[in-house]
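Q: What does the predicted 3D structure of Queuine tRNA-ribosyltransferase look like?
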Amino acid sequence: MSEFIFNLQKTDGQARRGEITTPRGKIQTPAFMPVGTAGTVKAMQTRDVKATGADIILGNTYHLMLRPTAERVARLGGLHHFMQWDGPILTDSGGFQVMSLSKLRKLTEEGVSFQSHIDGSRHMLTPERSIEIQCLLGADIQMQLDECPPFPITEEASRESLELSIRWAKRSKDAFEKLSKPGQALFGIVQGSVFEDQRKRSAEGLMEIGFPGYSVGGLAVGEGQEQMFRVLDFTTPVLPKDRPRYLMGVGKPPDLVGAVERGIDMFDCVMPTRSGRHGQAFTWDGPINIKNAAYVDDGTPLDADLDCPASRDYSKAYINHLFRAGEYLAATLLSWHNLAFYQELMARMRTAIEEDRFAAFAAEFRARYSAGAASEG
């Protein structure tokens, strides 16, 4: 199989159950993609990430271009071989990290020049260079280079930004068609901040160019969940029904449920592993801080029903002890559990859509999760 294919199998309201076929395997949607920023899902071995149920992981163009460099990864056999992951990999374009991490950033029609946050070296990222890097890495799903504007932003500045991103989308596609291999796919990124007319303009501009998938960018940047959902309410209906929809950088479990409710198929976020490294565990009854004294003598597991050793086989008291003792295993166990929880959440949503009961599932999930979060304080 050398094609990228999206098969929309079932809908329940706006929620969608589907399957993406790539040369490196199938992706069941709605899907959550663990983030492997620098060629690793932090604190995890790839075999354990796969065992949680992840079909695909995300790699980061910005970080990998700086070190060890895309050229070095290519010489060493590509990102899949380099990090020992044989499933699909999606790479972002680097645009968000240039905005959020780099120094002395200068934006022009050509691209964006910036200073590395690591060593101060100067770099130029253009649509063509972003695609070249992603092809050198060997990514199965790639992103156009876009400008990810800050929030809040004026309507005029947002409009200028999205028009630039549309022009960059065309250049990204032209470069992709020259450099990519059969079966690889390039997604366009819908921008426009919180402005309805601009989101529609961005989506229409990208659809004129034509992509096998569409991402919704520029959210989860400070606008809040209510505003994010409002943007999705008017954005997803204008996107093609026969192409996957990817909400970038989102989010907490209630964000995922609400976005699936609004027609999103794919997600990525550092939340499961970042929270795990800092002592937060996600549960059906809301997040808990395992470092709290309440868990010092708690001999129960995080989730006895999850098919994950970190969730099932270790007590809360033990993980609490690991954090208090400063042991590395603490971050691994909690990251592992959180990733397994996220994958189980996606699996339950897929099943609920298949069985035409997604609305009931979402309502039950929200009620239980918010009640537990309130009691945790």
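A (community wiki): The structure tokens above were generated from the sequence. The CA atoms of residues 220 and 250 lie 6 Å apart. The two ends are 50 Å apart (CA to CA).
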